[in-house]
């Protein structure tokens, strides 16, 4: 699972009503154009698509924002479409039609989306405030120095650990991969395992390991993850499997804090979104740390993901849609804080709203935000699913089957490069 997939997979999808797009029935919930009864007087109606967030209150908030925008801009009504189920497949189908959404949310902008005009350039509304964003939030939205999306929320992913378990085992929070492997083994006692990285045994490593070894996945359009440093890292990480210190086959996945709260694993790969539940269930008995550095040239890693808003390049109302996106995600700091922290628990992408957010100023939340600033990283949008798959398949063979790391990564990198070469130049 990629960092960007994490946000989608951890949500609940509950909707049941029907939306017709281009003559195709899609499971969705669509509001009427909003705005204090003035929607019928609007000259323009924007259709704004969201995937169905699991956090209570998010749909009402999205509708409230749309209503407020129409109050301030009576000529523009906003229709909120709440899309459950396989959101990615549905928006990909919808944007192929003239009736597709004017504004929709995505995890990253792929070259195909740019080539097919599924997104409009947003430099005119984002350009003057790019310095307010963590650069890693813009990397999956940028091609040829043009920005195609506005980040909405940052989901931060790193390691959580039970302080009481580490103390009882005489283990310090790991700062290197070797320390993590040793700690996981020492913390494995009976049915309780030392570490949970996902039920596949390596979700937490998929997007971290080359970075933690001081390497990269990609340099521009060149695949570069097949290095001795990365091979050494994955060889060392295999010990987590051979030591049997990884939790596997748990009823919930890594993005749910259940394994951590229950004590099934003393350390877990997880996200900031779980903090409120963790604080409620095991107050004071937890802390966070980055994925540890690997090798002499390595560095700690914190992965960030999240959702971003784009404007459909084929919309009849591109200019109006841009102004709406600008108002909602770049001008209204109060709404950005509300969206990030009143329903789920995320970091607002812009520095101003993030630094002003009281819930992020203390405790573990502040630690996570500080680690994000220091170590946060994310791959570019060229790390597309087909490019990534060869890497993930190879890593699985190394970790689970003991395949030779150097040879396996070399072969995987060649397949990744072939997939990358097929992506359009934009």
List keywords for this structure.
alpha+beta, D-Maltodextrin-Binding Protein, domain 2, six-stranded mixed sheet, 39% helix, disordered N terminus
Describe the protein in words:
With 426 residues, this protein is α+β, with helices and mostly antiparallel strands. The chain folds into two domains: 3-154 and 306-366, Periplasmic binding protein-like II (D-Maltodextrin-Binding Protein, domain 2, 3-Layer(aba) Sandwich), CATH 3.40.190; 155-303 and 384-422, Periplasmic binding protein-like II (D-Maltodextrin-Binding Protein, domain 2). Helices cover 39% and strands 17% of the residues. It is built from 18 helices and 18 strands. It has helices spanning 3-9, 58-72, 87-94, 111-115, 123-126, 135-138, 163-168, 177-187, 209-212, 228-242, 258-262, 275-281, 318-331, 333-341, 351-356, 363-375, 385-401, 405-422, and strands spanning 18-21, 24-27, 29-30, 44-51, 76-83, 103-106, 142-143, 146-147, 150-151, 155-161, 193-196, 218-219, 222-223, 265-271, 287-289, 302-305, 308-311, 376-377. It has a six-stranded mixed β-sheet. Strands 10, 11, 14, 15, 16 and 18 form a six-stranded mixed β-sheet that branches. A hairpin with a 2-residue loop joins strand 7 (142-143) and strand 8 (146-147). The model is unreliable at 1-28 and 34-39 (pLDDT under 50).
Helicity level, as a percent range? Answer: 25-40%
Strand order of the largest sheet: 3-5-4-6-17-9
- According to CATH, the homologous superfamily of the largest domain is Periplasmic binding protein-like II
- CATH fold descriptor of the largest domain: D-Maltodextrin-Binding Protein, domain 2
- Which spans have pLDDT < 50 for at least 5 consecutive residues? 1-28, 34-39
Distance between the termini: 26 Å
By secondary-structure content and strand pairing, the structural class works out as alpha+beta
